[in-house]
Amino acid sequence: MECRVLLLILTSLVLRSSGEHHMKQQVERRQSSNKDTPIVVANWCADDVYPAMLTQSGGGPTEHGLRLQSGENQTIYVSDDWQGRVWARTNCSFDDSGQAQGGSGSACSTGDCGGALGCQIAGAPPATLAEFTLHGGMDQTYYDISLVDGYNLPLAIVMLANGNSELEQMQGSKTNPSCVGSVGDLAPQNFDPYKNGQQFLGTSSNNPMPFETKTTSDDVEQWCPWDLQVDAPTAPGNGIYPYPDGNVQRPVFDPCLSACAKYSEDQYCCTGKYDGPSQCSTNYYAKAAKSVCPDAYSYAYDDQDSTFIIPEGAGFQVIFCPGRAGVDSLPDLLQAAHCQSCDSES
Asked: What domain count does the chain have?
């Protein structure tokens, strides 16, 4: 049964080889759609974060922004044809009315949405995004972690079977992407979350997450290109940066703009004459982002490497600062689709 599900996913990826991202699709609304799909937003960071939710289509949550203290989580409910995104804002300061202190300007250092606690517009870059198209056609759900708007916090998406027997048979190690690009939030190389029978990101010791073990703390600390750091360190000595800049201490919290967000150039944003999968290719930011977050969507036509596709019916958990990144789940999933037993079962 599992192999048939994986083959279905492989087929859907082939059908979507045009490169159009699922968030750009015009999703057909269902005639009757209740808000009963859970999205559990969890803060595993050491500090408070301010998650935000923006609806593109379908029935969105009643709340569009909230505060979560470290260790807290909150469940929001959306319709089963919802299309939207979730992200977290950092270092925020709101007044009692839910507006930026002083009534104008930004309230948060990253991910701000016009200074409001409840977001009616997209967050300002950089912001790590969890993107969902719950009713994407062919009875499938599409989702991804996106770094197209830059990176501010580690993030993981955990699929919740939500009572669906078909989804319950899918392995969490194949469906739950994660991205940790902050050295202060990276678990050690010998990280073992399965002690005493515990689960981690929807996986267990019987079906463990294939953790990235080659990437070092130095790799994570240095991945953001120097010119794209939001708060690049002050030049040492006589004001001249050494080349390469690897021996310059970077801040632990080091948000990173994408090349598109920083420069707004067609070649980076896949616009103008670069608008198309054959015209727009990866860039220096996207390559750097992929080096630490292979599960994440890094530029506008990164779909086949980064969009996760499952049968409809799932809920999701969005976790900020999950602790350790999984390694490139999607290629593993595609490879599993070629298992020999599938031929005999189909």
From this structure: 1
